[in-house]
Specification:
This protein has 444 residues and is α+β, with helices and mostly antiparallel strands. The protein is built from 14 helices and 16 strands. The structure holds glutamic acid and magnesium ion.
Length: 444
Amino acid sequence: MSIETTQALIADKGIEFFLCSFVEMSGVPKSKLVPATHLDDMAREGGGFAGFACGEMGQGPHSPDMAAIPDFSSLQIVPFRPNLAWVAGDVHVEGAPYPFCPRGVLKRQLEIARAKGFSLFSGVEPEFMLLGADEKGGFAPYDALDTLEKPCYDLRALNRNLDLMTELMKALQFLGWEPYANDHEDANCQFEINWTYSDALLTADRLTFYRWMVRSMAEKHGLTATFMPKPFSHLTGNGCHHHLSLWNADATENLFLDKGDENGLSALAYAFIGGLKAHAKGLCALFAPTVNSYKRLVKGAPKSGATWAPVYISWGGSNRTQMIRIPGAGRIELRTADGSINAYLAAAAMLAAGLDGIEKSLPAGEKNLDNLYELSDAQLRERGIECLPSNLSEALDELEKDAVLMEMLGPQLGPEFLRVKRAEWKSYHDSVSSWEMQKYLGVF
Ligand code: GLU
Ligand code: MG
């Protein structure tokens, strides 16, 4: 969207303020509030930020200012305050694109794909839980009546949440995202809203905005919405599945579609799957980027009977125990990513891995139709099915070994990502949990 179109939109929609935004490594938006009277300055110079203050941006307190130069094609009018518009920025420092900017990493990867004749389309399924204070001052699923062992699709629970859910759906309609479904998910007080897929950059912008919007709108109802991967060990976690398809460069033809194939997938799609499988372990560091993420990627049954989360590097059919599910012709569903992803880095990573699969014609391997949660270790070994990393530390070691993914992150961000995340792991490892106290204190 050009500055002229934005100016016309400001006049037409009555926009008085902008949230000039960007994300650092965590993927959570940071913003400056800028009055529309200063649109031209903002468009030219960007919002100015002290990078060290906002999170992990490869800056120290001595570093020069970062400028988030707004990309108006990302503009979203804030549904609950329509005189305010959010816009994602590309971070620059001293006039040059900044290599630590996650949005810049995705744009670079999309350019690489475009040069090869491809564009990536994606649709996301970010799950979230609605929490309130529990009696110990912590957080718990807020609705005391939402106690079923299998609460998925429960109409009574959905009914009790219709105020917020219809508000959220209307907000997405207002934004023009074409939402088409909303359901109570598998954990108590867990929900998911689906909206229509789009090009991967727009989807990453929307996902970034969406998590902020949902949290903000839930707060107005006195609730805490969380996308944290696994808030409660006895309940299913919060996934953020990605539905992917590769199209030609001008986005007129879905290159993953082959109606003659038994799964409706082209040879290109199988090679993309081959790439995702070959890089699956390193990808985990970007799809499951927190200590907590790995408590979701397990098969031990929670209250509902299944975690529905991937544990193994596999693909197959419309089967939710697989890392990659084939929900229909012409697309694949990658189920590893969770609610704590940086939307830009995760999308860039899936694209880099898939392109590598195409370049090297990597095999997708056998399709799995079994309930993978029930296969024995011997059966898994026989079929050559490997496990995803079981914790963040392992995933980071895998990422470091993965030249394709490290190149995707770039020579500055790659090592910085490893440094920051290893410090996160160490800080977790240094703490003594209540589980350890219960298990060992009375014994030794
Ligand atoms: N909550 C599950 C996960 O963490 C997914 C459930 C579903 O298939 O929607 O991935
Ligand atoms: Mg779901």
